[in-house]
Amino acid sequence: MTKLAGGLAVVFVCASAAFADPTADAKAVGEAFAKAMAAGDVPGVLALYRNDASIVWPGHGEEAKGKEAIERVVRAAIGSAAKDLRMVQKSNEARALGDDYLVNVGRWEDSFTTANGRHVTMDVRTTEVLARTGGKWLYLVDHASVGLPRPAERLRARRERR
């Protein structure tokens, strides 16, 4: 009976890995990231990255490798963000790369109010590699890029320059 129970446990674990949902796993990490950023929780953001992670974030130091360098970029990003920072994952699609890696492509809508009171909404695209580390999914590579301003915001910015 013990061998049967052990065999069933192995089958269950293998089936669970086979039926895991990479998109849901990546989305959960993204939502934790958005929540920590909006709260200004630097340790919470850093807990989502491996020690050897790399990031590319437009406008906040651009690139960093390793937690110490990533912390500087995160602090700069949180320090420059308005109190009403809101990050909403609009979509994400992930694929498993073996058992311990995922690649995810996401679309986000970030909004905030600038220091001069202007409300900004921007579209952000992300490409991420997540690695299962200590039983958790953590960012290994986090590459974000900002799309062109929305048409209404381009018009408003043009009027403000005049």
Walk me through this protein's architecture.
The protein has 162 residues and is of the alpha+beta class. 40% of the residues lie in helices and 39% in strands. The protein contains 5 helices and 6 strands; from the N terminus they run αααββαββββα. Strands 2-1-6-5-4-3 form a 6-stranded mixed beta sheet, covered by helices on one side. The longest helix is centred in the first third of the chain and has 18 residues, at 22-39.
What structural class is derived from the secondary structure elements?
Answer: alpha+beta
Instruction: Sum up the overall morphology in one term.
Output: globular
What is the count of DSSP helices, taking H or I runs of 4+ residues? 5
Number of strands: 6
Distance between the termini: 81 Å
How would you state the average pLDDT, rounded?
Answer: 85
What's this, in brief?
This protein is α+β, with helices and mostly antiparallel strands. 40% of the residues lie in helices and 39% in strands. The protein has helices spanning 2-18, 22-39, 42-46, 67-80, 151-161; strands spanning 49-57, 62-65, 86-96, 101-113, 119-133, 136-146.
SSE layout and pairings?
Elements: H1 2-18, H2 22-39, H3 42-46, E1 49-57, E2 62-65, H4 67-80, E3 86-96, E4 101-113, E5 119-133, E6 136-146, H5 151-161
Parallel strand pairs: 1-6
Antiparallel strand pairs: 1-2, 3-4, 4-5, 5-6
Index terms:
162 residues, alpha+beta, six-stranded mixed beta sheet, 5 helices, 6 strands, 39% strand, globular
